[in-house]
Amino acid sequence: MVTMAVNTTVTRAMANKNPKSQALTSAARCFTWATLVFLAMPAVLHAQIASPTSQQVQQVTKGLQTAPMPDTHSSPTVAPEGVSTMKLVPGSMVDIHVFEEPDLDGTYRLDGHGNISLPLAGSIHLESLTLRQAEVAIGAKLVSEEILKTSHVVVNIDEYGAQNIVVLGEVNSPGRYPVLAPRKLVDVLAMAGGRTQIAGNEIVIHRMEEPPQATELVHYGRDVDSRAVPNVEINPGDTVQVKKAGIVYVLGAVNRPGGYVMQEAGDLNIIQALAMAFGPAPEAANGSIRIIRKQPDGSILELPAQYNQVNKGQATALPLQAEDIVFVPSNKIKSVLLKGQGVLSAATSATIYTVH
Questions:
Q1: What gap in Å lies between CA 316 and CA 4, rounded to an integer?
Q2: How deeply is 195 buried, as exposed, middle or buried, from its count of CB atoms within 10 A (0-12, 13-18, 19+)?
Q3: Of 66, 155, 69, 76, which Cα lies nearest the Cα of 116?
Q4: In this structure, is residue 323 part of a structural domain?
Q5: pLDDT confidence of residue 82
């Protein structure tokens, strides 16, 4: 309506040709354009706000697709294996809740002696106790100190204190391995990289709470068919030592001289030892084969092997011991000249063989 009125005024003004009417016409035109701009401005602004360009839409959509979504789920906390039998150690932090007295609730860390200091009750020793045993110990302390007539205590682990299992001897990676709870013997050996090729069938275990001289011997070999072996548990703080297998040296006139690991049960006789060395050589003096054995006092004992008599069934094959040396001379003269000490020296550089 305003536009039509302005146009009418402009038309009438143009009808007059005098200067005054021309000035009025020019002023009317300026007023008309100003009015149009003023009326159109809200519509333009509304169009820009309400109708974003396609380029703007693409930018916003792309931003939504590439923006990382917030992680609303935290990773679950996995309890360590054997948590029910895990024993508290210095450094562990426990969360204690006493139903009858909430003022005693709180988180407590075991000190270097395995104690916590509970308000009113004082020091309580919790080292080497399971969580359930700790609940009983705290409850008994509260009753004995006449703080409560009866108590119901709940103890939970807030922070674990790890201890080490020491693995030594014939394993591929001996060392100290931190654990939180008891582990099976097979798991401990796996952590240490398994046993070496010259590992024996004896494993010595020293328990942390036992005196140094008290040890536990476990027979653990590839051919040991015992259901008790996999169930042997190693506790945090224990020491496991895998013993070296016994080695018997077969030297002299044999087809493959060297040291041979006594297999599994450790039973080996003279005939078996010579068979591992591929038998006596053609030039061997079989009747002069002897066994050289070092005694605990350092002396050397020489025993006749009676190889020919054993082959004829006239004698029993002599059982060998770890570190024995079976020497096969090439002739009787060399057998007399070569003494036990010389044979022992030769054994130090012998190649060690294992039989699979």
A1: 137
A2: buried
A3: 155
A4: yes
A5: 58
pLDDT at 8: 47
Contacts by residues 203-208 (CB-CB < 8 Å, ≥ 24 positions apart)? 203/240, 203/241, 203/242, 203/243, 204/240, 204/241, 204/243, 205/232, 205/234, 205/238, 205/239, 205/240, 205/241, 206/238, 206/239, 206/241, 207/235, 207/238, 208/235, 208/236, 208/237, 208/238, 208/239
Spell out, as residue ranges, where the chain has pLDDT lower than 70. 1-84, 221-230, 263-266, 332-356
Please, are residues 193 and 133 in contact by the beta-carbon 8 Å criterion?
A: no
For position 67, what pLDDT does the model report?
A: 44
* Residue 76 confidence (pLDDT): 46
pLDDT at 211: 85
Query: Are the beta carbons of 100 and 148 closer than 8 angstroms?
Result: yes
Q: What is the predicted pLDDT for the residue at 193?
A: 93
CB burial readout 40-53, b (16+ within 10 A) else e: eeeeeeeeeeeeee
What does pTM read for this prediction?
0.56
CA gap 299, 296 in Å, rounded: 7
Lookup result for tokens 């103890």? 155
The enclosing domain of 144 has a CATH number of 3.30.1950.10
Count of structural domains, the chain: 4
Final residue belonging to a domain, choices 184, 211, 244:
244
pLDDT at residue 311 in the model: 86
Structure tokens at 235: 């506790």
191 is in which domain, residue-wise?
163-244
In a domain, 190, yes or no: yes
What pLDDT score does 189 carry? 92
Q: Which residues pair with 168 in a beta bridge?
A: 241
> Can you say how many angstroms the Cα of residue 51 is from the centroid of all Cα atoms in its chain?
60
What 3-state class would DSSP assign to 177? Answer: strand
Domain of 240: which CATH number? 3.10.560.10
Which residues on adjacent β-strands are paired with residue 107? 95
For residues 316 and 309, give the distance between their C-alpha atoms in angstroms, rounded to a whole number: 8
pLDDT at 209: 79
Of the residues 244, 264, 283, the one at which a domain ends? 244
CA distance 249 to 350: 8
List all residues 6 or more positions away from 122 whose beta carbon is below 8 Å from its beta carbon.
141, 145
